[in-house]
Amino acid sequence: MRKEEVRDLSVVTHLRTSHAKVVEQLGLAIVGGDFDIGETLPGDVDLEQRFDVSRSVLREAMKTLAAKGLVIAKSRVGTRVTERCHWDMLDEDVLRWHFESGVTREFIDQLYDIRLVLEPATAAFAAASATAEDCAELRGYAMLLGSPDLSWRDQAVADLRFHIYLTLVGGNLFMDSMVGFIKAALDGAFTLTYQQTGGGPRGDGIVNAHLAIVAAIEQGDQNGARIAMETVIQRGRAAALAAIEGSSRPG
């Protein structure tokens, strides 16, 4: 992804092809536990009828799920669900399916642990290479967070664009490949938090926390940018964990 493409970045997943729809429905069913670990999926004829697709579309969908680590096909045995240790948890779809199926405190903690490894480093990289135009772009996204004039979904998009743009500013090709993971992690956690809280505005605190990242980047302060990003991530962790706790309380 290029920096100029971030302004059009959205959190909406468009399923335009039959292949994409089969991958989505089967992937979500596997992650959601409709099929047990080690269970053999229904045969091709059954799945073709269920999804109203051709044999070639179904096989391509199975190849996609296999590439994500969710299934493995064996001759004379069929296609079975693999153990979770084989699932590609950095894959955007796999992570999104987990959020849609419902996540636990342990899942959120582990997710934010990985964000703490990756994103403070991207902030430090950005502090070493950002231009004045980059900082202006980041500041614009930060100022949208918590705005009473924006829906929580629009704020989620602004938050997403801030973090993805920052990742790209760093110019590290390996970090750039993590854009899909960061996108799914942010959208999943944001949606979890604001569906539970009713989507109310977040106020100046979250804006200032993001602006602190921008200020450090402008000053070329790599350590300061790293610390400011850690603060934002820990705030997000606390909000997501509180949302899980709230959703688990009896109504």
TrEMBL record:
Keywords: DNA-binding, Transcription, Transcription regulation. Residues 16-84 form the HTH gntR-type domain. Pfam families: FCD, GntR. InterPro entries: GntR_C, TF_FadR/GntR_C, Tscrpt_reg_HTH_GntR, WH-like_DNA-bd_sf, WH_DNA-bd_sf. It comes from the Bacteria. One of its GO terms (molecular function) is DNA binding. Gene3D superfamilies: GntR ligand-binding domain-like (1.20.120.530), Winged helix-like DNA-binding domain superfamily/Winged helix DNA-binding domain (1.10.10.10). This is DNA-binding FadR family transcriptional regulator.
